[in-house]
């Protein structure tokens, strides 16, 4: 009997070690390639973690200055900012936009971002924000195009925003927000990662109340399709993308498929041809090390850009690797945006700068 118990325990141990090695991408290598000439954008230097494109104005809003799982607030010496990048010009310069009347200017360190166009044409931004002591909120801002400034509308705090990462606006005051875990410290996060007892998920906020849509999982990047009928969720720890039918009227979702990526996809963008783009972390162990000390410029992590073309039934996808880098040029890619009918590419990073590439190669075969 003892031998049987020992064999079973050994089997579980071997399985656990094997799954952990797979999750951290041990023994994977990255080979550098670019789709065309790539340049650094002047402006963001402390990250370009997420990007939202306003098609009506052909501009991009970019979050910068993330603080994440920060055990020592004194080390977060950088400022949180929102940058504006004009996609119609090739100046390769992003403009920092002033933000008026924030409740806590020193505690404004943006993470995920989304936007909504109000009936009067105003661009409203929804931003996941962490403070230096890693407290969380959703900050809502309206963009004044004439004065080129952002005006604070509202700051939302809720007990279900346990560790918010990404956000999708669904109305003037409503949104979906992902939680990528529950732990608030580096040590606690390590325990979650190694045990698999995740405390993240997906939350819907209707402007007054919140409700869980997914629990006890990891939800990283999230986005709705352009017809707003399909929801994509990055399960970065499992290296998969969950695909769900989304019902806005009834605030419900039904799983369609789960796409295995064999890489840690972060945030998403959907282009006008309904292709899904993602900035990914191909070697998670390197990404974890880089994210553990944002201020250490000697640390870097590989980057990867994937474009997904889904089948009509959304149960499979053709994946094309558009960009790959060992981290020395573009470190820890978090978002990829293909624009100009697939001829140009923006790559945002967690803690570093912003990359703008030409796409001079065919992506459809």
Automatic annotation (TrEMBL):
Record's cofactor remark: Binds 2 calcium ions per subunit.
Active-site positions on this chain: 111 (proton acceptor)
SUPFAM superfamilies: Calcium-dependent phosphotriesterase (SSF63829)
Binding site residues for Ca(2+): 49-50, 113, 165-166, 220, 266-267
Keywords per UniProt: Calcium, Disulfide bond, Glycoprotein, Hydrolase, Metal-binding
InterPro entries hit by this protein: 6-blade_b-propeller_TolB-like, Arylesterase, Serum_paraoxonase/arylesterase
Keyword Hydrolase attributed: yes
GO molecular function, one term: metal ion binding
Cysteine pairs bridged by disulfides in the record: 38-357
Cofactor(s) named in the record: Ca(2+)
Keyword Hydrolase applies: yes
Highest taxon above the source species: Eukaryota
Record-stated family: Belongs to the paraoxonase family.
Protein name stated in the entry: Uncharacterized protein
């Amino acid at each position: 009997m003892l031998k049987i118990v020992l064999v079973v325990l050994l089997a579980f141990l071997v399985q656990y070690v094997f799954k952990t090695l797979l999750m951290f991408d041990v023994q994977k290598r990255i080979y550098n390639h670019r789709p065309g000439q790539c340049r650094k954008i002047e402006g963001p230097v402390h990250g370009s973690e997420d990007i939202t494109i306003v098609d009506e104005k052909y501009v991009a809003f970019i979050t910068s200055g993330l603080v994440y799982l920060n055990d020592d607030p004194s080390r977060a010496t950088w400022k949180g900012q929102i940058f504006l990048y004009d996609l119609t010009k090739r100046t390769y310069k992003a403009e920092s936009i002033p933000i008026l009347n924030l409740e806590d200017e020193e505690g404004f360190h943006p993470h995920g971002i989304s936007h909504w166009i109000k009936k009067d044409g105003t661009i409203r931004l929804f931003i996941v924000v962490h403070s230096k002591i890693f407290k969380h909120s959703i900050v809502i801002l309206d963009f004044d195009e004439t004065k080129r400034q952002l005006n604070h509308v509202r700051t939302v705090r809720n007990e279900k925003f346990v560790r918010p990462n990404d956000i999708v606006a669904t109305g003037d005051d409503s949104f979906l927000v992902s939680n990528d875990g529950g732990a608030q410290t580096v040590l606690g996060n390590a325990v979650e990662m190694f045990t698999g007892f995740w405390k993240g998920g997906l939350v819907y906020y209707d402007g007054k109340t919140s409700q869980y849509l997914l629990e006890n999982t990891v939800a990283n990047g999230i986005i709705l399709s352009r017809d707003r009928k399909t929801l994509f969720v990055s399960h970065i720890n499992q290296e998969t993308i969950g695909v769900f039918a989304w019902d806005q009227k009834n605030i419900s979702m039904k799983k369609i498929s789960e796409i295995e990526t064999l890489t840690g996809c972060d945030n998403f963008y959907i282009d006008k041809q309904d292709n899904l783009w993602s900035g990914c972390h191909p070697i998670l162990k390197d990404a974890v090390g880089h994210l553990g000390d944002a201020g250490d410029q000697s640390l870097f992590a590989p980057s990867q850009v994937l474009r997904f073309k889904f089948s009509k039934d959304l149960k499979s996808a053709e994946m094309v690797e558009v960009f790959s880098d060992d981290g020395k040029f573009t470190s820890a890619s978090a978002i990829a945006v293909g624009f100009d009918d697939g001829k140009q590419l923006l790559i945002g990073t967690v803690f570093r700068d912003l990359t703008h590439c030409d796409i001079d190669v065919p992506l459809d075969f």
